[in-house]
Specification:
The protein is mainly alpha-helical. It folds into two domains: 30 residues; 85 residues, no CATH class. Helix 2 crosses helix 5. The N and C termini lie far apart (64 Å). Bound molecules: heme C.
């Protein structure tokens, strides 16, 4: 390739990479919905131990009300504050689901969960 074209080409490539980054930083955009965006993740990865059959740590994850009530340690989520939510903390430090059990929460799912809690109105 002649130098002019290779410079032009790498410029285009860098430009498109920068565009990708800008898009990645802006998502997720919409406010996640418990039934539609959150519950399916919990059903797949948490509810077999925190639902109808078992309620480990006395935590039921099937409804928002039950999550707000929480388990033996207290509320699993703190509306408006993902950082102070036990549920996020335990996923972040890979305590939940318990080690070696899986299936694990992906980083995209964790972002959705954080966003869901951060955009939740704090009624306390
Ligand atoms: C294989 C079973 C299992 C799975 C799957 C599981 N957990 Fe747990 N979870 C437990 C057990 C057991 C405890 C109690 C641990 C303890 O008291 O040390 C617990 C405790 C918790 C607690 C603390 C409850 C309290 O008040 O003390 C939270 C929050 C939690 N789990 C969230 C989750 C989330 C979120 C997922 C899905 C990503 C998940 N768990 C998946 C077994 C499980």
């Amino acid at each position: 390739m002649r130098p002019f074209f290779s410079i032009l080409f790498s410029g285009l490539l860098l430009g498109s990479l920068a565009g990708e980054n800008a898009r990645a930083e802006n998502k997720p955009q919409a406010t996640p919905d418990f039934q539609k965006d959150v519950l399916p993740v919990f059903e797949e990865k948490c509810i077999r131990c925190h639902g109808a059959k078992r309620r480990d740590g006395k935590l039921d994850m099937r409804t928002l009300a039950a999550l707000l009530e929480g388990g033996v340690t207290g509320p699993a989520i703190k509306p408006g504050n993902a950082k102070k939510s036990l549920l996020i903390e335990l996923i972040h430090y890979k305590e939940m689901p318990p080690k070696k059990k899986g299936p694990f929460i992906t980083s995209t799912e964790l972002e959705i969960l954080r966003h869901w809690i951060n955009t939740m109105p704090d009624k306390s």
